[in-house]
């Protein structure tokens, strides 16, 4: 959850845009390619991820990513402040048409990333377990294997992913991290 994005904001409304008084939201959401996809899409600085995906000619119906939610932080502290934390699959990102590219999608499509302030206001116990790139101390919990432990390396890794692939999350498709300092 390095550089985590808030989930409370999108959980405050129903599908029609109506405000929900007692809304619930996960601590974290993660995306993982299924075993049959992982490693198939080879992305390079010269080949954007969408071109690499398109070149695979995946059939309609292919599951590209599994979507997981974590109810609370996963920690190894004894005593564990979140003994009921669970992670479970909540969905799939599946192709419903052939992959196409567009100028709009490449240059103008934007997904707003929300701060975790609202999340931490609703669930104050989570604050100390929210890993941040700018936190100048050792991170709580287990840092994912693909990500460096050192805060300077963490920032460099995010910069490298953005530079090389245009996205700080290119690792989802198994791309290497090339740090930029």
How does this structure look, described?
- This protein is of the alpha+beta class and 181 residues long.
- The protein has one domain.
- It is 20% helix and 12% strand.
- The chain is built from five helices and three strands.
- The chain has helices spanning 8-11, 49-55, 103-107, 117-122, 151-165, and strands spanning 28-32, 63-70, 87-94.
- The protein has a three-stranded antiparallel β-sheet, with no helix packed on it.
- The model is unreliable at 133-144 (pLDDT under 50).
Keyphrases for this structure?
181 residues, three-stranded antiparallel β-sheet, alpha+beta
In short:
With 181 residues, the protein is an alpha+beta fold. Helix content is 20%, strand content 12%. The two termini are 21 Å apart.
Amino- and carboxy-terminal Cα gap: 21 Å
- For the CA atoms, what is the radius of gyration? 18 Å
* Overall 3D form: globular
Biggest sheet, spatial arrangement of strands: 1-2-3
Per DSSP, the total helix count is: 5
For the biggest sheet, the summary is: 3 strands, antiparallel
Q: Return the structural class.
A: alpha+beta
- Counting DSSP E segments of at least 2 residues, the number of strands comes to 3
| Average residue pLDDT | 77
Quote the beta fraction: 5-15%
**How many domains, as an integer?**
1
Walk me through the topology:
Blueprint: H1 8-11, E1 28-32, H2 49-55, E2 63-70, E3 87-94, H3 103-107, H4 117-122, H5 151-165
């Amino acid at each position: 959850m390095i550089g985590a994005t808030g989930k409370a904001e999108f959980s405050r409304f129903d599908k029609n845009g109506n405000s929900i008084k007692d809304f619930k939201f996960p601590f974290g959401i993660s995306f993982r390619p299924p075993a049959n996809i992982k490693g198939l899409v080879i992305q390079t600085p010269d080949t954007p991820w969408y071109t690499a995906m398109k070149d695979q000619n995946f059939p309609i119906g292919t599951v590209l990513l599994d979507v997981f939610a974590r109810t609370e932080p996963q920690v190894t502290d004894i005593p564990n402040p979140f003994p009921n934390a669970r992670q479970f699959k909540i969905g799939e990102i599946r192709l419903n048409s052939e992959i196409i590219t567009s100028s709009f999608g490449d240059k103008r499509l934007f997904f707003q990333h929300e701060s975790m302030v609202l999340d931490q206001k609703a669930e104050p116990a989570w604050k100390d377990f929210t890993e941040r790139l700018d936190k100048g101390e050792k991170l709580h919990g287990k840092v994912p294997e693909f990500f460096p432990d050192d805060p300077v390396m963490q920032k460099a890794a995010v910069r490298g992913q953005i530079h090389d692939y245009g996205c700080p999350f290119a690792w989802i498709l198994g791309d290497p991290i090339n740090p930029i300092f």
